[in-house]
Amino acid sequence: MSPKFYLYAGTAQADLYQCWYDDPIAASPLSFLDLQSTKGNMRTDGTGLFSAETAPQIVDGLKGAFVKVMDDIKQPIQAAGIFTGNSWQLYVKQATDIQPWRDPRMAQIMAYDKVTTVALY
To answer: How many domains does the chain fold into?
Structure first.
């Protein structure tokens, strides 16, 4: 009997200010983002969707089809997907222990999102 493999749908999203730090935070898709798993690499589509057999993760920062983002102290974002409701959810949250305008995670997320958006147009 051969082993069976199942791909489960997933969504990659991040906390994001739509324009500026006074705006409310909204969940935004991480489009064209490269993800890793124990079974190989994958890339999200334009709406942050992907399929994976095993837990997807961001290992070495936000990098994708158009950009690779690193902050100036070389601490790339890392995040792991969780399996919930029969699908993968990978969500990069805003740091809660730092003032919003000093949050390196938010700066990286916003840079990735805006450069990817500009590259598409």
So the answer is: 1
